[in-house]
Amino acid sequence: MVELKIDKKDKNYVEITFIGEDIALINVIREILVENDEVEFAAVKHDHIELANPVLVVRTKKGNPSTLIAKAAAKVAKMAGDLSKSL
After folding, report:
1. What are phi and psi of 26, to 5 degrees?
2. Domain range spanning residue 69?
3. Fewer Cβ neighbours under 10 Å: the N or C end of the chain?
4. How far apart are CA 25 and CA 38, in angstroms?
5. How many domains are there within the chain?
6. Residue 5 near residue 19, CB atoms below 8 Å
């Protein structure tokens, strides 16, 4: 299970630190988010590859950013499940 820490949050903005995760998973979530018309901005901050945890930053035009992140993560999980079935 992924450990998360919400660093900043308001109506249309959130910064979430992914504890102990590498940047690959967060980048896939970010890529799905930027395809969503409700998302104004999505980026990953990663100060140091070995010493810092990656941070997902999302600003929305409308909609709750946490809900949109959860939907993107669910899409990633479905993609992974489809891949494992095809193998």
Report:
1. -65, -35
2. 3-86
3. N
4. 21
5. 1
6. yes
Q: CA nearest 16: which of 51, 62, 66?
A: 66
Q: Is the pLDDT of residue 51 over 80?
A: no
Provide CB contacts within 8 A for 39, sequence distance 6+: 33, 58, 59, 60, 61, 65, 68
Question: Whole-prediction pTM value?
Answer: 0.88
Task: With cut-offs at 50, 70 and 90, classify the pLDDT of residue 84.
Answer: confident
Q: Which two tokens stand for residue 46?
A: 């990663």
Distances (CA, A) of 52 to 12, 45, 58, 79: 25, 10, 19, 27
First to last CA, the chain: 23
- The residues near 76 (Cβ < 8 Å, ≥ 6 apart) are 25, 28, 29, 32
Instruction: Inform me whether the pLDDT recorded for 86 exceeds 80.
Output: yes
